[in-house]
Amino acid sequence: MKRDALLFVPGLLFGVGLAISGMSNPAKVIGFLDVAGGAWDPSLAFVMVGAIGVFAVFNLLVHRRERALNGAPLPGPKSSTGVSPRLLLGAAVFGTGWGLSGVCPGPAVADVSTLQPEVFAYLAAMAVGMVVAQRLFSLDVPKEPDPPTGSGEEEPAA
Amino acid sequence: MDWTNFTPGSALLGGALIGLSTGLALLLNGKIAGISGVVGRILRPAPGDVAWRVFFLVGIALGGALTFALYPPSAKLDFSRAGLPLMVAAGLLVGVGTRLGGGCTSGHGVCGISRRSSGGLVATVVFMAAAGVAVAIRSQLGGVGS
Lengths: 158, 146
What we know:
A: 158 residues; globular; B: 146 residues
Protein backbone atom coordinates (compact mmCIF):
# COMPACT_ATOMS: atom_id res chain seq x y z
CA MET A 1 0.00 0.00 0.00
CA LYS A 2 2.80 2.38 0.95
CA ARG A 3 4.61 1.63 -2.30
CA ASP A 4 1.37 1.93 -4.22
CA ALA A 5 0.94 5.43 -2.79
CA LEU A 6 4.25 6.46 -4.38
CA LEU A 7 2.53 6.33 -7.76
CA PHE A 8 0.79 9.54 -6.73
CA VAL A 9 4.03 11.37 -7.63
CA PRO A 10 4.25 10.34 -11.31
CA GLY A 11 0.48 10.85 -11.47
CA LEU A 12 0.91 14.43 -10.30
CA LEU A 13 3.65 15.03 -12.89
CA PHE A 14 1.43 13.57 -15.60
CA GLY A 15 -1.43 15.90 -14.66
CA VAL A 16 0.85 18.95 -14.51
CA GLY A 17 2.31 17.99 -17.89
CA LEU A 18 -1.09 17.63 -19.53
CA ALA A 19 -2.29 20.98 -18.16
CA ILE A 20 0.88 22.92 -19.03
CA SER A 21 1.06 21.45 -22.52
CA GLY A 22 -2.48 22.36 -23.56
CA MET A 23 -3.60 18.75 -24.00
CA SER A 24 -6.21 19.41 -21.30
CA ASN A 25 -7.95 21.98 -23.53
CA PRO A 26 -10.37 20.27 -25.97
CA ALA A 27 -10.46 23.27 -28.34
CA LYS A 28 -6.65 23.27 -28.55
CA VAL A 29 -6.62 19.53 -29.30
CA ILE A 30 -9.20 19.99 -32.05
CA GLY A 31 -7.10 22.85 -33.45
CA PHE A 32 -4.17 20.44 -33.61
CA LEU A 33 -6.20 17.67 -35.26
CA ASP A 34 -7.75 20.09 -37.80
CA VAL A 35 -4.81 19.81 -40.19
CA ALA A 36 -6.85 20.73 -43.25
CA GLY A 37 -8.86 23.48 -41.61
CA GLY A 38 -6.67 26.44 -42.54
CA ALA A 39 -6.00 27.45 -38.92
CA TRP A 40 -3.90 24.45 -37.93
CA ASP A 41 -2.17 24.74 -34.55
CA PRO A 42 0.74 22.26 -34.59
CA SER A 43 1.76 22.96 -30.95
CA LEU A 44 0.68 19.62 -29.53
CA ALA A 45 3.07 17.71 -31.78
CA PHE A 46 5.73 19.03 -29.40
CA VAL A 47 4.04 17.21 -26.50
CA MET A 48 4.74 13.93 -28.28
CA VAL A 49 8.32 14.99 -29.03
CA GLY A 50 9.01 15.91 -25.39
CA ALA A 51 7.28 12.87 -23.91
CA ILE A 52 8.84 10.33 -26.26
CA GLY A 53 12.28 11.92 -25.92
CA VAL A 54 12.28 11.76 -22.11
CA PHE A 55 10.55 8.38 -21.78
CA ALA A 56 12.80 6.73 -24.37
CA VAL A 57 15.86 7.67 -22.30
CA PHE A 58 14.19 6.56 -19.04
CA ASN A 59 13.17 3.29 -20.65
CA LEU A 60 16.78 2.48 -21.53
CA LEU A 61 18.16 3.59 -18.14
CA VAL A 62 15.55 1.74 -16.08
CA HIS A 63 16.21 -1.47 -18.00
CA ARG A 64 19.81 -1.46 -16.83
CA ARG A 65 18.23 -2.70 -13.61
CA GLU A 66 17.07 -6.26 -13.11
CA ARG A 67 13.77 -5.26 -11.56
CA ALA A 68 11.63 -2.26 -10.72
CA LEU A 69 12.14 -0.58 -7.32
CA ASN A 70 9.22 -2.54 -5.84
CA GLY A 71 10.77 -5.82 -7.02
CA ALA A 72 8.36 -6.35 -9.89
CA PRO A 73 9.72 -7.63 -13.21
CA LEU A 74 10.36 -5.01 -15.89
CA PRO A 75 8.56 -5.32 -19.23
CA GLY A 76 11.77 -5.23 -21.30
CA PRO A 77 13.25 -2.26 -23.17
CA LYS A 78 11.54 -3.11 -26.45
CA SER A 79 7.83 -3.68 -26.85
CA SER A 80 6.65 -6.70 -28.80
CA THR A 81 3.18 -5.32 -29.52
CA GLY A 82 2.53 -6.03 -33.17
CA VAL A 83 -0.11 -4.96 -35.63
CA SER A 84 -3.36 -6.92 -35.57
CA PRO A 85 -6.85 -6.35 -36.97
CA ARG A 86 -8.05 -5.77 -33.40
CA LEU A 87 -5.42 -3.07 -32.84
CA LEU A 88 -6.26 -1.33 -36.12
CA LEU A 89 -10.02 -1.36 -35.47
CA GLY A 90 -9.58 -0.23 -31.88
CA ALA A 91 -7.26 2.63 -32.85
CA ALA A 92 -9.72 3.81 -35.53
CA VAL A 93 -12.64 3.74 -33.08
CA PHE A 94 -10.62 5.52 -30.38
CA GLY A 95 -9.39 8.15 -32.83
CA THR A 96 -12.94 8.89 -33.97
CA GLY A 97 -14.00 9.52 -30.36
CA TRP A 98 -10.91 11.63 -29.72
CA GLY A 99 -11.59 13.78 -32.78
CA LEU A 100 -15.29 14.27 -31.98
CA SER A 101 -14.57 15.48 -28.45
CA GLY A 102 -10.98 16.74 -28.43
CA VAL A 103 -10.51 14.64 -25.30
CA CYS A 104 -8.45 11.48 -24.77
CA PRO A 105 -8.38 9.54 -21.47
CA GLY A 106 -5.50 11.35 -19.68
CA PRO A 107 -6.83 14.89 -20.18
CA ALA A 108 -10.31 13.77 -19.10
CA VAL A 109 -8.83 12.76 -15.73
CA ALA A 110 -6.69 15.92 -15.53
CA ASP A 111 -9.79 18.08 -16.15
CA VAL A 112 -11.92 16.59 -13.34
CA SER A 113 -11.33 19.61 -11.07
CA THR A 114 -12.98 21.93 -13.60
CA LEU A 115 -16.28 20.24 -12.63
CA GLN A 116 -17.42 20.62 -16.25
CA PRO A 117 -20.39 18.30 -16.87
CA GLU A 118 -18.80 17.40 -20.23
CA VAL A 119 -15.84 15.82 -18.40
CA PHE A 120 -18.01 13.61 -16.22
CA ALA A 121 -20.27 12.63 -19.12
CA TYR A 122 -17.20 11.62 -21.11
CA LEU A 123 -15.57 9.68 -18.24
CA ALA A 124 -18.76 7.81 -17.38
CA ALA A 125 -19.35 6.87 -21.01
CA MET A 126 -15.70 5.85 -21.37
CA ALA A 127 -15.97 3.51 -18.38
CA VAL A 128 -19.13 1.97 -19.85
CA GLY A 129 -17.41 1.55 -23.23
CA MET A 130 -14.42 -0.11 -21.58
CA VAL A 131 -16.54 -2.57 -19.62
CA VAL A 132 -18.62 -3.39 -22.71
CA ALA A 133 -15.48 -4.05 -24.78
CA GLN A 134 -13.90 -6.08 -21.97
CA ARG A 135 -17.00 -8.29 -21.62
CA LEU A 136 -17.71 -8.56 -25.33
CA PHE A 137 -14.17 -9.43 -26.38
CA SER A 138 -12.88 -11.02 -23.13
CA LEU A 139 -10.17 -8.38 -22.71
CA ASP A 140 -8.06 -7.53 -19.63
CA VAL A 141 -8.97 -10.77 -17.88
CA PRO A 142 -6.93 -10.82 -14.66
CA LYS A 143 -4.35 -13.56 -14.89
CA GLU A 144 -1.87 -15.24 -12.62
CA PRO A 145 1.61 -13.69 -12.42
CA ASP A 146 3.66 -14.79 -15.42
CA PRO A 147 6.98 -13.82 -17.02
CA PRO A 148 6.97 -10.37 -18.65
CA THR A 149 6.16 -10.40 -22.33
CA GLY A 150 6.97 -6.74 -22.81
CA SER A 151 4.15 -5.93 -25.14
CA GLY A 152 2.49 -2.55 -25.48
CA GLU A 153 0.16 -1.80 -22.64
CA GLU A 154 0.05 -5.36 -21.41
CA GLU A 155 1.28 -5.04 -17.91
CA PRO A 156 2.87 -8.04 -16.27
CA ALA A 157 1.24 -8.72 -12.93
CA ALA A 158 3.41 -7.64 -10.04
CA MET B 1 -1.54 27.85 -39.74
CA ASP B 2 -2.66 29.38 -36.47
CA TRP B 3 0.39 31.24 -35.18
CA THR B 4 -1.48 33.21 -32.49
CA ASN B 5 -2.13 30.03 -30.49
CA PHE B 6 1.22 28.39 -31.28
CA THR B 7 2.80 27.30 -27.98
CA PRO B 8 5.71 24.97 -28.75
CA GLY B 9 7.60 25.78 -25.52
CA SER B 10 4.88 24.89 -23.03
CA ALA B 11 3.91 21.90 -25.17
CA LEU B 12 7.48 20.59 -25.14
CA LEU B 13 7.82 21.18 -21.37
CA GLY B 14 4.47 19.52 -20.64
CA GLY B 15 5.44 16.60 -22.86
CA ALA B 16 8.76 16.21 -21.06
CA LEU B 17 6.90 16.06 -17.72
CA ILE B 18 4.64 13.35 -19.13
CA GLY B 19 7.73 11.43 -20.24
CA LEU B 20 9.23 11.86 -16.78
CA SER B 21 5.99 10.61 -15.22
CA THR B 22 5.81 7.43 -17.31
CA GLY B 23 9.55 6.88 -16.74
CA LEU B 24 9.10 7.13 -12.95
CA ALA B 25 6.11 4.78 -13.06
CA LEU B 26 8.24 2.24 -14.91
CA LEU B 27 11.09 2.62 -12.39
CA LEU B 28 8.79 2.41 -9.35
CA ASN B 29 6.68 -0.60 -10.25
CA GLY B 30 7.65 -1.87 -13.67
CA LYS B 31 4.40 -0.88 -15.34
CA ILE B 32 3.69 0.91 -18.59
CA ALA B 33 1.46 3.73 -17.45
CA GLY B 34 -0.89 4.19 -20.37
CA ILE B 35 -3.97 5.94 -19.02
CA SER B 36 -6.62 3.82 -20.75
CA GLY B 37 -4.90 0.68 -19.44
CA VAL B 38 -4.61 2.16 -15.94
CA VAL B 39 -8.35 2.90 -15.92
CA GLY B 40 -9.39 -0.28 -17.76
CA ARG B 41 -7.74 -2.58 -15.26
CA ILE B 42 -9.49 -0.86 -12.37
CA LEU B 43 -12.75 -1.77 -14.05
CA ARG B 44 -11.65 -5.40 -14.38
CA PRO B 45 -9.38 -5.62 -11.37
CA ALA B 46 -6.72 -8.15 -10.46
CA PRO B 47 -6.06 -8.61 -6.73
CA GLY B 48 -3.36 -6.25 -5.42
CA ASP B 49 -3.19 -4.38 -8.72
CA VAL B 50 -5.70 -1.62 -8.08
CA ALA B 51 -4.36 0.75 -5.41
CA TRP B 52 -1.40 2.13 -7.41
CA ARG B 53 -3.73 2.87 -10.30
CA VAL B 54 -6.05 4.88 -8.06
CA PHE B 55 -3.13 6.84 -6.58
CA PHE B 56 -1.82 7.52 -10.10
CA LEU B 57 -5.20 8.81 -11.34
CA VAL B 58 -5.76 10.96 -8.23
CA GLY B 59 -2.31 12.43 -8.88
CA ILE B 60 -3.29 13.30 -12.44
CA ALA B 61 -6.49 15.03 -11.32
CA LEU B 62 -4.65 17.00 -8.60
CA GLY B 63 -1.78 17.82 -10.96
CA GLY B 64 -4.30 19.32 -13.35
CA ALA B 65 -6.04 21.26 -10.56
CA LEU B 66 -2.73 22.59 -9.22
CA THR B 67 -1.59 23.76 -12.64
CA PHE B 68 -4.90 25.45 -13.48
CA ALA B 69 -4.61 27.34 -10.17
CA LEU B 70 -0.95 28.34 -10.40
CA TYR B 71 -0.47 28.83 -14.16
CA PRO B 72 -3.41 30.91 -15.44
CA PRO B 73 -2.84 30.30 -19.18
CA SER B 74 -3.50 26.60 -18.58
CA ALA B 75 -6.90 27.30 -17.01
CA LYS B 76 -8.48 28.70 -20.18
CA LEU B 77 -10.19 25.48 -21.19
CA ASP B 78 -12.75 25.54 -23.98
CA PHE B 79 -15.34 22.76 -23.86
CA SER B 80 -17.69 24.48 -26.31
CA ARG B 81 -16.78 22.26 -29.28
CA ALA B 82 -18.82 19.28 -28.13
CA GLY B 83 -22.09 19.25 -26.17
CA LEU B 84 -23.11 16.56 -23.71
CA PRO B 85 -24.61 14.09 -26.24
CA LEU B 86 -21.45 14.22 -28.36
CA MET B 87 -19.25 13.86 -25.27
CA VAL B 88 -21.16 10.72 -24.29
CA ALA B 89 -20.83 9.28 -27.80
CA ALA B 90 -17.14 10.15 -27.87
CA GLY B 91 -16.55 8.65 -24.43
CA LEU B 92 -18.18 5.39 -25.52
CA LEU B 93 -16.04 5.23 -28.67
CA VAL B 94 -12.89 6.01 -26.68
CA GLY B 95 -13.73 3.37 -24.07
CA VAL B 96 -14.40 0.63 -26.60
CA GLY B 97 -11.59 1.65 -28.94
CA THR B 98 -8.84 1.91 -26.33
CA ARG B 99 -9.57 -1.51 -24.84
CA LEU B 100 -9.98 -3.14 -28.25
CA GLY B 101 -6.81 -1.50 -29.55
CA GLY B 102 -4.96 -1.94 -26.24
CA GLY B 103 -3.96 1.66 -25.65
CA CYS B 104 -4.47 5.37 -26.14
CA THR B 105 -2.31 8.44 -26.74
CA SER B 106 -0.06 7.66 -23.77
CA GLY B 107 0.20 3.87 -23.98
CA HIS B 108 0.58 3.50 -27.75
CA GLY B 109 1.79 7.00 -28.60
CA VAL B 110 4.27 7.89 -25.87
CA CYS B 111 5.27 4.53 -24.37
CA GLY B 112 4.79 2.33 -27.43
CA ILE B 113 6.78 4.49 -29.83
CA SER B 114 9.52 5.01 -27.22
CA ARG B 115 9.79 1.25 -26.85
CA ARG B 116 9.96 0.79 -30.64
CA SER B 117 6.64 -1.02 -30.80
CA SER B 118 5.43 -1.52 -34.37
CA GLY B 119 1.88 -1.88 -33.04
CA GLY B 120 2.20 1.33 -31.01
CA LEU B 121 3.48 3.28 -33.99
CA VAL B 122 0.81 1.98 -36.37
CA ALA B 123 -1.94 2.51 -33.77
CA THR B 124 -0.77 6.10 -33.27
CA VAL B 125 -0.85 6.81 -37.01
CA VAL B 126 -4.32 5.24 -37.27
CA PHE B 127 -5.89 7.06 -34.32
CA MET B 128 -4.37 10.39 -35.34
CA ALA B 129 -5.72 9.90 -38.86
CA ALA B 130 -9.15 8.84 -37.61
CA ALA B 131 -9.27 11.85 -35.28
CA GLY B 132 -8.26 14.17 -38.13
CA VAL B 133 -11.01 12.73 -40.32
CA ALA B 134 -13.59 13.12 -37.53
CA VAL B 135 -12.63 16.79 -37.08
CA ALA B 136 -12.68 17.40 -40.85
CA ILE B 137 -16.11 15.81 -41.26
CA ARG B 138 -17.54 17.84 -38.40
CA SER B 139 -16.17 21.06 -39.84
CA GLN B 140 -17.72 20.17 -43.23
CA LEU B 141 -21.06 19.57 -41.50
CA GLY B 142 -21.30 23.11 -40.24
CA GLY B 143 -18.24 23.96 -38.26
CA VAL B 144 -16.36 22.38 -35.39
CA GLY B 145 -17.30 25.35 -33.27
CA SER B 146 -21.02 24.75 -33.59
